[in-house]
Design goal:
With 205 residues, the chain is mainly beta. The chain is built from two helices and 13 strands; from the N terminus they run βββββαββββββαββ. The protein folds into two domains: 98 residues, OB fold (Dihydrolipoamide Acetyltransferase, E2P) (Beta Barrel); 94 residues, OB fold (Dihydrolipoamide Acetyltransferase, E2P) (Beta Barrel). Helix content is 6%, strand content 63%. Strands 1, 2, 3, 4, 5, 6, 7, 8, 9, 10, 11, 12 and 13 form a 13-stranded mixed β-sheet that branches. 26% of the residues are buried.
């Protein structure tokens, strides 16, 4: 991995189809936010469904509803879910712009930040190499987003050699993955969101 300059980037662009009408999400500092699911097709035919959060004012400029093809640019955000139900770490796409989705589905992002947990390298029962990373990306105003990332094959082996505190810049896609979790003796369907890493390089912190 070559060392490059660059620090604390968070840029994402998803082009796909809105699969449900926007609904109220929350209000902060007098700004009302709404949320809607955006489904993006992979080249393999699989789908990723990402929750988008957008200011209501932005959605008034470009209204969307179920079935609308859109292109959303923004930042990947995380927050801790303290409700006791669902995933503890919630990952969303915070929209900065929304426009008509012209062209094929697309899902790409660029992140730069620092590793905040030791990498976890493992092999599947079929021998596929995987490495899990947790990347902290600072926002402008003192907070940080903690984003789970996953890499494969030769890139996973490189990621397994990283250490906490290392700065990295990566390119990839934001993906959703269904899984089953046992809670109070019952199996429940959950969805995990993570960054699938395509390229990664070191950056100077």
């Amino acid at each position: 991995m070559d060392m490059q300059t660059g620090w604390n980037e968070n840029r994402a662009m998803l082009r796909g189809t809105v699969t449900a009408d926007p609904v109220w999400s929350h209000e902060t500092h007098g700004v009302v936010y709404e949320t809607f699911p955006l489904t993006v097709l992979r080249l393999s035919g699989s789908e990723d469904t990402i929750n988008v959060i957008a200011p209501k004012e932005l959605l008034e400029e470009y209204p969307v509803k179920a079935g609308t093809p859109v292109e959303v640019e923004g930042e990947v955000r995380s927050f801790n879910n303290k409700s006791g139900t669902g995933s503890k770490l919630v990952i969303t796409l915070h929209a900065k712009s929304i426009k008509p989705g012209e062209g094929p589905n697309e899902n790409r992002l660029t992140l730069a930040g620092v590793l905040c947990k030791p990498p976890v390298f493992r092999r599947t029962p079929l021998g596929r190499e995987i490495c899990d990373l947790m990347l902290a990306v600072n926002r402008k105003y003192g907070r940080a987003d903690y984003l789970p990332c996953i890499s494969w094959g030769a890139l996973a082996r490189c990621c397994g050699e990283l250490e906490v505190g290392d700065g990295v810049r990566l390119e990839g896609r934001l993906q959703s993955r269904a899984y089953t979790k046992l809670e109070n003796g019952q199996s429940r369907q959950r969805t995990a969101f993570e960054v699938s890493v395509m390229r990664l390089e070191g950056v100077e912190t």
